[in-house]
Amino acid sequence: MEIVTVTDGAEQFTCNAYLVLGERNVLVDAGTMPGVEDVVAEHTDALDAVVLTHQHTDHVGELDAVLDAFDADLYAYADHPRRTGELEDGDELRMGDETFEVVYTPGHASDHVSLVGETRVFSGDVVVHDDGAFDDGSFGRTDMPGQSRERLVESLRTLLRRMPDTVAELYAGHGDVFRSDPDGDSVRDVIERALSRAERREPKYPDD
C-alpha cells in the first residue's frame, strides 16, 4: 500500500491531503491547494472515495474540484451536499489494502473523526507530531467558536484506548508524517505527550 501526500509543496495554507493507493484508492481530506486533483490524477486514473476527517475550510477547500474530476464517493461524519456515505463511530472503511475503524474524536471540530488501522492512523487535527507549537506531540487548537478542550482531551483518551499497539505510523492533518522509532518514540508516545499537554489547559498559542 502506498500513501502519497498530494498537497506536498503547497504554497498556501492547507491541510495534508493523503492519497491512499491499493485495492481501493481513497483520498483522506482534499486540502486547499489548487490543482490537487491533477496531482491525484498523476498517481491514479480511478479514485474510489474521498474521506473527510472534518469539514474545516483547510480540509475541504478543493473538495468540489476533486469530486468533479473523479466519480468518487464522499464519506463524512457531518452532512454535506455531496456526501454519499455517512460516517459513524465504529464504522469500518477499506482504504488502500487495509481496513480502518472510524473513531469519533471531537474537540477541534464537532464532526471530527480519526481513521485507525492495524499499522497506521489518520488523525486529522486531533493530534499531530509537529505543528510549530510543539514538535514531538501536539493537538488541534480549541480556542475558536465551537471548539472544546475538554472534548479534545477525551478524544485523545478515546484514541489511545482504541488504537492497537501495532500502529507505527501517524498521518496527521498538519506537520510531518511520524513513524515509530524502535529506539525512540512510538505513535502512542506522541499521543500520550499531546494528551498531557492538552490536559494542562494552557493556551496552545500563548501569543494569540
UniProtKB/TrEMBL annotation:
GO terms for molecular function: hydrolase activity; metal ion binding. InterPro entries: MBL_Glyoxalase_II (IPR051453), Metallo-B-lactamas (IPR001279), RibonucZ/Hydroxyglut_hydro (IPR036866). It comes from the Archaea. Residues 14-174 form the Metallo-beta-lactamase domain. Pfam families: Lactamase_B. Its cofactor is Zn(2+). The keyword Metal-binding applies. Keywords: Hydrolase, Metal-binding, Zinc. This is Glyoxylase, beta-lactamase superfamily II. The lineage of its organism: Archaea, Methanobacteriati, Methanobacteriota, Stenosarchaea group, Halobacteria.
